[in-house]
Amino acid sequence: MNQLGFTILYIALLTLEFLTVFTLTSLNINSVIKNRESIPLLFQSLISKESYSKSIKYTLRKEHFSILRLIFSTLFSVIILFSGFLGKIESVLSSYISNSTIYGILFIGIITFILSISEIPFSIYSTFVIEEEFGFNKMSIKSYISDTIKQTVLTVFLGGIILFALFMFIEKTGSIWWLLASTFFILFQLLLVVIYPTFIAPIFNKFTPLEDGELKTELEKMATEAKFSLTGIFVMDGSKRSGHSNAYFTGIGKTKRIVLYDTLIENLTVQELCGVLAHEIGHWKMGHITKKITLTFLTIPVTFFIISLLIGFQPLFTTFGLQPGTYYGLITLIMMISSSFTFFLTPLSNKLSRKHEFEADDFAKKIRGESDSLINALLKLSKDNLSNLTPDIYYSTYYYSHPPVSERVKKLSEN
User: Fold this and answer.
1) Catalytic site includes residue 372
2) Catalytic, out of 17, 90, 131, 280
3) How far apart are CA 144 and CA 239, in angstroms?
4) Which whole number is the average pLDDT over 91-105?
5) 280 an active-site residue?
6) Is CATH 3.40.50.2000 the right assignment for the domain spanning 204-288+349-413?
7) What predicted TM-score, i.e. pTM, was given to this entire model?
8) Domain map of the chain by residue range?
9) pLDDT for 140-172, tens place per residue?
């Protein structure tokens, strides 16, 4: 394939990706508007007309905003890719830096920084306008800036380690670099999984062990009945940033823990929280965590092997004004254009995730001997988070990693 052919292929795929996302979002907007007059039967006893109307407005604001964000990000990427900007960055850096490793790290870092900067106005608007308007934002400008700085420092630190190691493997180990680099990345990710709960997450939030009392007693009792070795239940101060509620499982081995948002504890009863924890334990007992980690690890060598093959594909570089055969250029392009080649995989990965959610729900129902506690928790969370109660089926199939709450409640209610 020559440069013209590759250019046509990429533009066609980029257009298809854009139209897919735009169409699905439009379908979701139409579904919300179509159902705005009547509360779904499942929620009628729980949600007032005022709350339902608020959830409709919230969903529409987010979806309309996402379309604007989609248009901007697409146009911005096209300008960066086809304006010769990448080649100009190469020329400037080559005038000052001779070390190929430092050169490559700086090139990728500069492009990543520019792309990140372009997203900041959207992040600010989402946080301080949309989330603020609907009562979810609890952040101050000061805490937002602090979080941004922390995230930047962490990204530079970890990203620098990863890129330095990658270029060392490329330069020192010849044709088998991709295999050795894959091994390093897998071990590095395992390390991050281990250290994240105790060293990285506390940079942004405060985690405190759940206090003694009825809730802790019931949760530990339920974990024992599920034969789950629980190393800790922690409460996260999520309320200092957002009014949204959640719970999640993190870590492996001795670092594994269940994390409950403080907002979740405030809004749910003890029994409902037991239902939520039973669901989270279900993910572990059903092997979902291991399966996801294994799948991620399998994609790493495949990705690096593809990179090793693409390095000799000259049209990939010349199409976007880059010097052919550079790994820093290839990594940058993969970062910027790969979604147009892989976007069709999104519904496949989400389908697997939804399957796991149903399985965890079923586990919770069996271990609890009832489903009402989890059902009530799901309904309350949907209400409190102003969730879209009537998503378009094609939209949810493509985007949702969790089944719509109506489907989960229906399945949980079955005998």
Assistant:
1) no
2) 280
3) 14
4) 90
5) yes
6) no
7) 0.89
8) 3-202+291-343, 204-288+349-413
9) 999 999 999 999 999 999 999 999 999 999 988
